[in-house]
């Protein structure tokens, strides 16, 4: 009976040896405090790491009882590895990737903290540089997540997800960093005065729209569209509804004309995609009872209007992707780059290679990596809610859904770098077949046992790169390419383009016997030719299958496109302030098809304000908000230096590199990498409304853009777009339950009076005076006295992030 009472936690906490119950008790009671002490540079930092920069962290652990057993390990994820540490009670060491292991030198005493100070590479300027789900393990016991580091299931913002991060977070990287603080005044300066949206407001803005007097009454529509395959778009349909005729006309791809008159709606389109986009426009014009009389002539600015979605780092699920496809179609985006494999997970089942998903789609505490991959990116000891994969049937459902919205899916299973999930899975396969003396055990093995190379990738892995010099690498890639193509064929959706990846490839082959032999045989000149050699081989495999290739620009920079078969797409991801314009124009001039993917403007996982409470990595920009994205001029890359600065908010010089082959600029792609995105709600927070602004830039060329931009026209254009977002799109997302980002309130004080502002109409502003227990709706002229808090509220009553006004 006493043992049962103890298990139920009804006895006073007391010292006990560590068994499974004790480990779970320890995980449930361990108090964790993670505190950034200071940012450092120069002498205290290891010059071999972090570019001479580091920061100092103190981790403090406390138990409310004695714990005599020290035979336990605490595993935690750190974005930046530890350079050095000091502690009398704890030690820490790097495992692989972001995973670190902490062990105890001394036992816990009741209420007495054990602490460790360490220096880590670079800097920490936001909460999301800390990862959740620390966990405890011990020999022979099942690992258990530490409760104090486990985020609430509905957590969206970092401070809610990471309550164990304490204290102030440094704001500046270096003494030369001039990034402003995102306070009420900063927000106020970025928000235009709210304006009503006209009835005919459409996003993306059409090329030409003329308005006639009057409206046309309608409650339903009768579609007459012979020869067109059109999806349901939410328009009410009825045989007795207002007639909508659809016919063909000559014109640019995806173009259409839409005319609304008393007698009905006439659509003429160059192709099915144009007809679809005309109906998308019609849904925006229709308010439920009437349409404005308009004539619209429209066609897209760029043929490639894309979004990259990373499902590898954290798997967001099939339902999320289906909902995303709906939103992309409504925004006239037409390319979905699906990132399905990386170091942290393989997310697409490949028939005949079950280990890729049976083992490498999961993360758990398994140091031998027989059942799963090591936990990374805060996955915890079981990866719950962050792992999974698409079956072939799931993937085909996505293909068909995308096709209905005229979206091309571009799959990517990254290689030769970012391939740890594949490498570990094929090792499990090799060991399984070898143990049974099965023929072909090494057919798809991705490890060369005699390779003595030592390296570390940019994400701190030492075993994540395919070897381009062994035949089994190409047997594996051929098997994967063929399997993915077969899935497309079975779905009735041809695979047109495959994205290889080829980015961030570490020097993993300098001591490979196979690579040395390749060089000695004269097939390549030296180690620098190994990546181009690999790309030539796999692009050739794709070409033989009738598939075009794409890759990230850094992998293609040493490749001459004239030596490659067929067209090759290059996603240029060098920031503009680091020469992105030069890279993009050089590659277009060489003959690559270029898609602008500049991190400082299109990485939608980056923070939306220079504030540690805004989630996301920030290596390429401290913030990308709606305003900044709207101001981007993709047709005048050099002119962007007139308005943007580098990542430390210092001016930079534009390259002014000539663009000799403008037809090779295909368009724009937004990126959502998911290292710090662990739920659909967190994904929508980062995507919306920014995805709508990206769609506007990709479809419509604003008249204010040019070598000498019309800044007044830019401000007016943003005001119109903000009004359209507030009046039409935020209500849509409210209705669909999408957790878009509500903007923090802008606050300005003039002559003792506080003025509060939001960028979008339709939102409510609330204030919480000091000492008050309930939020109050704000109205202009309301008397306010600092300190007070303020926040936005959606039409559905969802509150945004509050900011505090102290003076």
Automatic annotation (TrEMBL):
Catalytic positions are 504 (proton donor)
Instruction: List, alphabetically, the Pfam families matched.
Output: CHB_HEX, CHB_HEX_C, Glyco_hydro_20, Glyco_hydro_20b
Q: Does the keyword Signal apply?
A: yes
Which superkingdom?
Bacteria
Reaction(s) catalyzed by this protein?
A: Hydrolysis of terminal non-reducing N-acetyl-D-hexosamine residues in N-acetyl-beta-D-hexosaminides
Cite the EC number.
3.2.1.52
Give the UniProt keywords, A-Z: Glycosidase, Hydrolase, Signal
One GO CC annotation, please?
Answer: membrane
Q: Which SMART domains does the record match to this protein?
A: CHB_HEX
**EC main group:** hydrolase
The UniProt entry's GO biological process terms, in alphabetical order, are: carbohydrate metabolic process; glycosaminoglycan metabolic process
Question: TM segments?
Answer: none
Q: Which family does it belong to?
A: Belongs to the glycosyl hydrolase 20 family.
Protein's name according to its UniProt entry: beta-N-acetylhexosaminidase
From which organism does this entry originate? Gallaecimonas xiamenensis 3-C-1
């Amino acid at each position: 009976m006493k043992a049962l009472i103890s298990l139920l936690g009804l006895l006073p906490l007391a010292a006990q040896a560590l068994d499974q119950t004790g480990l779970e008790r320890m995980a449930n009671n361990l108090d964790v405090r993670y505190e950034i002490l200071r940012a450092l540079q120069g002498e205290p930092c290891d010059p071999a790491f972090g570019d001479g920069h580091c920061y100092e962290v103190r981790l403090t652990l406390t138990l409310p009882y004695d714990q005599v057993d020290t035979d336990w390990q605490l595993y935690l994820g750190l974005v930046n590895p530890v350079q050095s540490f000091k502690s009398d009670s704890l030690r820490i060491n790097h495992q692989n990737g972001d995973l670190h292991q902490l062990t105890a030198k001394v036992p816990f005493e009741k209420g007495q903290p054990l602490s460790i100070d360490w220096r880590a590479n670079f800097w920490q300027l936001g909460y999301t540089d800390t990862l959740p789900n620390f966990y405890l393990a011990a020999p022979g016991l099942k690992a258990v997540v530490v409760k104090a580091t486990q985020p609430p299931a509905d957590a969206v913002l970092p401070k809610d997800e990471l309550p164990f991060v304490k204290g102030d977070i440094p704001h500046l990287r270096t003494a030369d960093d001039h990034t402003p603080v995102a306070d009420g005044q900063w927000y106020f300066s970025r928000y235009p005065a709210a304006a009503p949206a006209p009835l005919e407001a459409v996003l993306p803005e059409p090329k030409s729209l003329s308005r006639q007097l009057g409206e046309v009454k309608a409650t339903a529509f009768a579609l007459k569209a012979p020869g067109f395959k059109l999806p349901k778009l939410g328009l009410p349909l009825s045989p007795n509804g207002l007639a909508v005729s659809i016919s063909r006309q000559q014109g640019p791809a995806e173009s259409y004309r839409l005319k609304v008159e008393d007698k009905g709606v006439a659509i003429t389109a160059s192709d099915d995609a144009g007809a679809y986009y005309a109906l998308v426009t019609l849904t925006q014009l229709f308010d439920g009872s009437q349409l404005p009389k308009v004539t619209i002539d429209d066609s897209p600015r760029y043929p490639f209007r894309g979004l990259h979605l990373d499902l590898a780092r954290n798997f967001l699920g099939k339902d999320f992707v289906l909902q995303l496809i709906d939103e992309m179609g409504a925004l006239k985006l037409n390319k979905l780059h699906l990132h399905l494999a990386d170091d942290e997970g393989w997310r697409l089942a490949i028939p005949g290679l079950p280990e890729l998903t049976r083992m490498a789609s999961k993360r758990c505490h398994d140091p031998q990596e027989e059942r799963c991959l090591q936990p990374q990116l805060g996955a915890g000891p079981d990866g719950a809610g962050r792992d999974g994969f698409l079956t072939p049937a799931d993937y085909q459902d996505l293909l068909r859904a995308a096709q209905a919205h005229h979206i091309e899916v571009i799959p990517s299973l990254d290689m030769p770098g970012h391939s740890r999930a594949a490498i570990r899975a094929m090792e499990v396969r090799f060991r399984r077949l070898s143990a049974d003396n099965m023929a072909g055990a090494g057919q798809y093995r991705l490890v060369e046992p005699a390779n003595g190379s030592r390296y570390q990738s940019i994400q701190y892995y030492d075993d994540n790169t395919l070897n381009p010099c062994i035949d089994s690498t190409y047997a594996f890639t051929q098997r994967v390419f063929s399997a993915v193509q077969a899935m497309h064929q079975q779905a009735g959706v041809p695979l047109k383009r495959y994205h290889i990846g080829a980015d961030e490839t570490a020097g993993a082959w300098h001591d490979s016997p196979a690579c040395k032999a390749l060089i000695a045989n004269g097939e390549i000149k030296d180690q620098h030719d190994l990546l181009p050699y690999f790309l030539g081989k796999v692009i050739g495999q794709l070409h033989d299958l009738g598939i075009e290739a794409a890759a990230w620009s850094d992998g293609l920079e040493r490749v001459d496109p004239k030596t490659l078969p067929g067209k090759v797409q290059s996603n240029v991801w060098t920031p503009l302030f680091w020469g992105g314009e030069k890279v993009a124009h050089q590659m277009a001039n060489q003959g690559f098809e270029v898609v602008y993917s500049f991190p400082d403007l299109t990485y939608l996982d980056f923070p939306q304000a220079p504030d540690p409470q805004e989630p996301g990595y920030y290596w390429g920009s401290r913030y990308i908000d709606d305003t900044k994205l709207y101001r981007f001029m993709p047709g005048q890359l050099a002119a962007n230096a007139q308005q943007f600065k580098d990542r430390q908010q210092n001016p930079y010089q534009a390259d002014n590199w000539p663009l000799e082959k403008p037809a090779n600029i295909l368009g724009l792609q937004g990126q959502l990498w998911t290292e710090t995105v662990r739920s659909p709600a967190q994904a929508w927070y980062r995507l919306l409304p920014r995805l709508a602004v990206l769609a506007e830039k990709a479809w419509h060329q604003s008249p204010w853009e040019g070598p000498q931009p019309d800044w007044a026209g830019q401000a007016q254009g943003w005001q119109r777009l903000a009004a359209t977002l507030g009046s039409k799109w935020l209500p849509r997302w409210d209705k669909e339950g999408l957790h878009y980002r509500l903007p923090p309130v802008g606050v300005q004080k003039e002559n003792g009076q506080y003025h509060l502002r939001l960028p979008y109409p339709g939102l409510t502003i609330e204030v919480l005076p000091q000492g008050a227990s309930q939020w109050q709706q704000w109205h202009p002229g309301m008397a306010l006295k600092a300190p007070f808090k303020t926040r936005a509220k959606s039409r559905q009553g969802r509150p945004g992030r509050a900011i505090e006004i102290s003076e």
